[in-house]
Design goal:
alpha+beta; five-stranded antiparallel β-sheet; 707 residues; 39 strands; Rossmann fold
Amino acid sequence: MKIARLLTISFVFLHMATNSSEAQKIKYPDTPKDKVIDTYFGEKVKEPYRWLENDTSKATADWVKAQNKVTYNYLEKIPFRQALKQRLTNLYNYERTGIPFKKNGFYYFYENNGLQNQDVLFRKASLNGETEIILDPNTLSEDGTVALSDVSISKNGKYLAYSIARSGSDWNEIFIMNLENHQLLDDHIMWSKSTEIAWQNDGFYYSAFDAPEPGKEYSVKNEYQKIFYHTVGQKQSDDRIVYEDKKHPLRECYASVSDDEKYLYITVTETTSGNGLLIKDLSNPRSDYSELAPGFNNDYIVIGEYNDKVYILTNWMAPCYRLMVANPEKPARENWIDVLPESENVLEKVYIIGGQIIGVYMKDATNHLFIFDLTGKVQNEIQLPTPGTITSISGNKNDNEVFFSFTSYTFPPTTFLYNTEKKTCKLYEMPNVDFNPNDYVTAQLFYKSYDGTKIPMTITYKKGLEKNGKNPVLLYGYGGFNISIKPSFKVSRIPFLENGGIYAVANIRGGGEYGEEWHKAGTKFQKQNVFNDFIAAAEYLINENYTSSQKLAIDGGSNGGLLIGACMTQRPDLFKVAVPEVGVLDMLRYHKFTIGWSWTSDYGNSEESKEMFEYLKGYSPLHNIQKGVHYPATLIMTGDHDDRVVPAHSFKFAATLQAANKTDIPTLIRIDSKAGHGAGKPIRKLIDAETDMWSFVMYNLGMNPKF
């Protein structure tokens, strides 16, 4: 940490001398300071912008309005912004169909005709049959800000339970539709969050919190989650609690039900890593919960049941995961046996379809798809079109149809149909996007981080690129919570690529690309590895003459927003542009809001020890901004309804950065209204946000794009 600070200081003057800003003159809103001081283990920490944590106050609302006025005044003067918006609108305007999932003789699927704000749920009786609309979320709000979060069809096919989220919030509301006549029932469930809808008979299990205090819905700490059973037709107040833990307020719990409705599974978590797993025999009214697996050191995911056995994907004594089978009559973990033992590659997903096991493995951040029999003997590998990602798979355990969706950086999400009996695979649905993928190259590179660890990085660019050190680059990363950043397709990157840009993704530690050990190597007191890996990626791109620090932008969201905030404050000389999106930027107080306490397995907690406090403060982006430092052009992005990473992180970071900024380099914050952490954002808002982000990036990289 000290080395990073010394590097910052030593490069400040060089950067100031060599980098002149062509940006507009900006007058930032005046942000008042108060005298709040927190004390951690005897050390006092000033909190001058604590008042911005009050997301419902008039003062905060006025500040948001003033900041957006400055930001949009800047963005509107970018000469190519409207042309970029039109290009993005044209790119988004293509018909796309989601992967089918079969329930009770019907194929259900989502479809968007191009620019619909939300995807529409359809169904048909056969693959070539007539389609009917089941649910169009575009009718639920005039502005498209009400989104479907989840749908679940009852085992008898009579009911559809669906949850919606408003304005991007993580809070969900559950409704029920009668699928026989498409009539909406009176049932209405509030304050559910992070829940499955698990049907049993004419009702379902769901997880919910107590109603929050009015005015604090989007910031209050979420505690005492419970699992309820709801019977169709009754009021939420009559729902019965089937599981709760009164001794541990900071635990979450979720329910799932076996296909034959015999077993209820309860997953209990304390953080984002590790869970406990309970089982209950629903056929015996007197049965109690039995422990399948203890918490909370390992992950246990129930895949399904077959021949009276329960299949479980786990990293217990297997950092790269394995598939095991348990006998519900003897559920204790010591009785489990291996079906797919751990291998050198990560076993990422498993499905039981057509009496066979479908295994998705990950090697060097790309997927491979294998078919096994139920004993674990490999049958064959399904050849994929190019290195890329299996985004989803659907099918039933007694049906031979396997649908899977595949994508890569220049390969739009495409659905394939595999037949487990005939062992044939064919194209089912491929979208038609307004670009030519043959014009581009995707290559995987490997570079060394500061401690010698080999890190994979993928770059995508237009054919004919010259390694002359002058190419604009956007470097993206995440590095946390065991989440793997695999190849994905986004039309919003195309204009940047069309105009000579390089899109780079570094698969840094903290993710799950190489299993749990790779994840742990980027957590708690190892978190600096994540930032070092990302900084090393930037240096590699410069040293290999792909680009220079004057042509390098960095972007990341959520935990990736923390990554960008930490790297731009540790090495401001290295980057020309920084875009921290919905970022965790205050590492001393993140755990005090909504569900933030569940992230301590990755971050630690500033109140748990003096050593942890000092480590967190040492890289916390908010607490490492220094006056007089020449920071990159910065566009902070957040949403006013983000109740996962509350916008106060971004608000305080922006105010602090603006106060320290003594140059003409822009330090802006874009606060989207009726928007949250990202999920469910309507197409029109996506286009607006991506227009502004890419306009800011390309303008400050000195690009003159043509559209």
